[in-house]
Design brief:
Blueprint: H1 3-6, E1 18-21, H2 23-27, H3 37-50, E2 54-58, H4 64-76, E3 81-87, H5 90-100, E4 106-113, H6 116-123, H7 127-144, E5 148-153, H8 160-173, E6 177-182, H9 189-202, E7 210-215, H10 222-231, E8 236-239, H11 253-262, H12 264-267, H13 278-289, H14 310-318, E9 338-340, H15 346-355, H16 362-378, E10 382-383, H17 384-395, E11 403-410, E12 418-424, E13 430-436, H18 440-452, E14 457-465, E15 474-482, E16 487-495, H19 498-518
Helix pairs in contact: 3-4, 3-13, 4-5, 5-7, 7-8, 8-9, 9-10, 10-11, 16-17, 18-19
This protein binds 3-methyl-2-oxobutanoic acid (KIV) and zinc ion.
3-methyl-2-oxobutanoic acid (KIV) binds near residues 181 and 214.
């Protein structure tokens, strides 16, 4: 039955699970995942295309940068509801509304911790005070925004009777969604489903709100707990792409969605997600954050559809369903890995880029074609992963203030490793300097530091092969730490020469630091949720 036939939005049907994506809020607040405004917008557009129902775009009171990103997403991204997080106080709520008010479908999400441990040690508030604060805040949010979500933080460790009371009061005050966070990833599936079931059975007004899950993965149970919650009657799941999020992360969107789809026979529930966009979305987030997913990650990992054992391969050749419960194409994993060679033309490239989920302008495609030809000259076969690395250049939005224009290194046994770099400065002049290091890469980093004057500690340095084979591109991801260790910036680059990739990645990270400083120091003014509400 269509939306117009039922007279209510599809996401309100009893068999429909609302997908609430918090990649840009809970996900973005985790170490190594921070994004600039342009990157957040790109991710938000991807989420809307994926078909999520709600995008939690950020925590506007946290910083000017967060506020502007939420406002930009609310103004520009259509289709999904756009939600802003706020603690239970007037300033947070007003700021959240200021950020989301122009969204097609705005939502304010207010939260307040309810467990004894948080009440006593963090908030120093009585149960009565908690209820009063929750009610006042939901009412304030409701006075400006029809769609209000309330979260009793650390709900999974809250006394059930008290949780029922708080949830009832929040719904009476106007909450349209009540979210039940397992903030510290402590719950187990049967226990969590009992919490949800109890609320549904005991809270008199529960029928007036959507019950939601929000599970963290500290014990590796986030997906299982979310599904247990849904089985008990919850109809919204809060989750993130690739499962990124505070500490061990949140329930992975791709996992909960594919579990519901693959096991429709069991759950009988649907979502609005276009599952063939899951893999491109996972790749997009990886390129925006630099956080790669592990090889054996369910649904989107490199090995998720690889069959290595002879017995499995034999079974697959006879009948796919012997060892495959989902088809790679259902989640958008490219049909074949081998793409193009040096004789491939513009059309083939354009088609492949579209199949990989990217939408480049004609001008960008033309420039990509030049890069592709240069790469195809160096390596015979250009794989999807090679292409994705080339495409990333067009998704990078950090203005390149410094650019590497020349590099020379010497290294070997009984030699002092040295590097000379030539770098175009922000004023357009080319500067050159040299340094000695523990190895050629260390020498490059020191030389770049001398030219740019940007001092930073190298916190992480990872080289991986983009594809197989001796001629594969090497991708370097590194993380630089600045300003008394509370900020880190990532740089990534790939090349068939890993020394060059290392230099380029370092310069990219320096550009991220420079852009951050130009924005006039965007640092949290109040800390992040979970750090004290
Ligand atoms: O984990 C949590 O409790 C949260 C709340 C802010 C919903 O992220
Ligand atoms: Zn959370």
């Amino acid at each position: 039955m269509s939306e117009s036939q039922t007279g209510r939005p599809a996401e309100n049907r009893p068999d429909r699970v609302v997908i609430f994506d918090t990649t840009l809020r809970d996900g973005e607040q985790s170490p190594g995942a921070s994004m600039n405004m342009a990157e957040k917008l790109e991710v938000a557009r991807g989420l809307a295309l994926l078909g999520v129902d709600v995008i939690e775009a950020g925590f506007p009171i946290a910083s000017q940068g967060d506020f502007e990103a939420v406002r930009a997403i609310a103004t520009e991204v259509a289709g999904a509801s756009v939600c802003a997080l706020a603690r239970c106080n007037d300033r947070d709520i007003d700021r959240a509304w200021e950020a989301v008010q122009f969204a097609q479908k705005p939502r304010i999400h207010v939260f307040l911790a309810t467990s004894a441990i948080h009440r006593e040690h963090k908030l120093r508030m009585t149960k009565e005070q908690i209820i009063e604060r929750a009610v006042t805040s939901v009412r304030r949010a409701k006075s400006v925004c029809a769609d209000v979500e309330f979260s009793p933080e650390d709900a999974a460790r809250t006394e059930l009777d008290f949780l029922c009371e708080v949830v009832q009061a929040a719904i009476e005050a106007g909450a349209t969604t009540v979210n039940i966070p397992d903030t510290v990833g402590y719950a187990t599936p049967i226990q969590y489903s009992k919490v949800i079931r109890t609320l549904i059975e005991r809270v008199p007004s529960i029928g007036r709100a959507v019950v939601s899950t929000h599970c963290h993965d500290d014990l590796g149970l986030a997906t299982a707990n979310s599904l247990a919650g849904v089985e008990a009657g919850a109809r919204q799941i809060e989750c993130t792409i690739n499962g990124i999020g505070e500490r061990a992360g949140n329930a992975a969107l791709e996992e909960v969605v594919m579990a519901l789809k693959t096991r429709f026979d069991y759950y009988g529930l649907t979502t609005g997600i276009k599952t063939e966009r899951l893999y491109p979305m996972s790749r997009l987030l990886t390129s925006m954050t630099g956080l790669s997913v592990q090889r054996n990650k369910a649904i989107v990992g490199r090995n998720a559809f690889a069959h290595e054992s002879g017995i499995h391969q034999d079974g697959m050749l006879k009948e796919r369903s012997t060892y495959e419960i989902m088809r790679p194409e259902d989640v958008g994993v490219p049909r074949t890995d081998l793409v193009l060679g040096k004789h491939s033309g513009r059309h083939a490239l354009k088609d492949r880029v579209a199949e990989l989920g990217h939408n480049l302008s004609d001008e960008q495609l033309e420039s990509l074609f030049t890069d592709f030809k240069a790469l195809a000259d160096k390596k015979k076969e250009v794989y999807d992963d090679d292409l994705l690395v080339l495409i990333e250049k067009y998704l990078e939005h950090i203005p390149a203030q410094w650019s590497l224009v020349g590099l020379h290194t010497t290294a070997g046994m009984s030699l002092l490793p040295t590097a000379t770099v030539s770098i175009r400065r922000p004023d357009g002049e080319i500067a050159q300097d040299a340094a000695i290091g523990d190895g050629p890469v260390d020498a490059i980093f020191k030389a770049v530091e001398r030219v740019t004057g940007v001092r930073a500690n190298l916190r992480e340095f990872v080289v991986r092969s983009v594809t197989q084979g001796k001629d594969a591109q090497g991708e370097v991801t590194l993380e630089l730490e600045v300003e008394s260790g509370d900020r880190s910036f990532r740089g990534r680059a790939a090349s068939t020469d890993i020394i060059e990739a290392s230099a380029q990645a370092y310069v990219n990270a320096v550009n991220a630091i420079a852009a951050h400083r130009d924005r006039g120091h965007v640092r949290e003014v109040v800390g992040r949720p979970g750090a004290g509400a």
